[in-house]
């Protein structure tokens, strides 16, 4: 009798606990995020995570998704393609309605076939045009594609700096090699010449050999395609080698705090850049951008960069989709495919060819005496 009562009590306790778990699950909507939280990609990964965290706070403070709270469940992709794939698969197995991927082309390309199989809409930040060429209707790109970025870089080097002999240093991977080739074609089309193309591995720390070859090539300007740490080291070593007389165009990371925190103000001599996002009043959606910067900085004690802002915007667009069509994978995909003129903190988004959502970048220069930029020219894909 006593044993029977114990067993019955245990079953009741289990059912109560299970009911509580189900109730919690029903009170929230979980969205996945496979991001690089550790390793060489972590600088951008942390900003993307913080962008999602701020969005989660803002969405829930405003009433959530039709009364339900939203929560972002993250998995670390590190710097490995196989880890990135496994992170996505783990989130997919949980049958989440939507998943964010990292902002790195190599990981996005590796994961793309699994996204197509899973038939779940994702947003990602990698700029590689090869991703769009897969014609995957479930892939939505949050940042400008590399064809636009290459066109803007050519304009920065040849239109703004008015140089014709260009040297390129790029990271040796799918992103770096592809965008360097896109730029080479743009320079030749405009009557310029690529006098040197040097590459490096993602974990390299000594860039003196590449910089010396740039110097010996007779280059009038240097373009650098790489990740945050790479670009910071190249900028520092360029100055240490006395090469600041060769103007440099830094692409994508130029105005990001995670990169600027690694260099000194004097390292920025004769450096301009191509930026995915410019904040404050210079942003086309000024007041919204100003508030985002203030809120982000207050919460995380660092200013946002283009990675944090586009993932914040992505989360807000997904929240709108969830409110309108519910946590249905196919309906969310269709909603995003038809989305136009969404005014975010980064810029104005709208679904275009190959899932591209953002269609402008800015050529920027540094304000004298400050680690802050101003817009020289905006370049769009229109």
TrEMBL record:
InterPro entries: BCAA_transport (IPR051010), Leu-bd (IPR028081), Peripla_BP_I (IPR028082). One of its GO terms (biological process) is amino acid transport. Residues 28-366 form the Leucine-binding protein domain. Keywords: Amino-acid transport, Signal, Transport. Residues 1-25 form the signal peptide. Belongs to the leucine-binding protein family. This is ABC transporter substrate-binding protein. It comes from Undibacter mobilis. The lineage of its organism: Bacteria, Pseudomonadati, Pseudomonadota, Alphaproteobacteria, Hyphomicrobiales.
